[in-house]
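batch job 7 of whatever, protein = DUF4828 domain-containing protein
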Amino acid sequence: MKHGGLIKKFGRSILNKIPHKKDRSKANQKLQTALPLIYAGTWLFIDDLSQKHHKLEITVDLNILIDSHELPGKIERLDESSLVFLDTYGYHLQISAENLHPVSVYDEADNRSYDLSEYYK
């Protein structure tokens, strides 16, 4: 019987360290609230074929602008590793993030990827 009491105490101590469902929900809600902020900002990418510099802007409301022209469409997916945007022509624009920072953009219409860097004017 002595061992049974120890096992119960040990089990309870482990269970107390596991986040309760309510706590996990709060953490997930905080992450969902912060997700747009991962992508928000102004980024530079260079088209290797034309050597043109382009400006990609993502607002905190997740509006996407390229060279100051807003792209019509909608966000299809948003998580800590990617933002997927579907334009009105049916093409996807996928912004990939690493360490909570955008690093590249894939344009399905051109079937090309571009590295992103911070935009300085």
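notes: The first strand starts at residue 41 and ends at 47.
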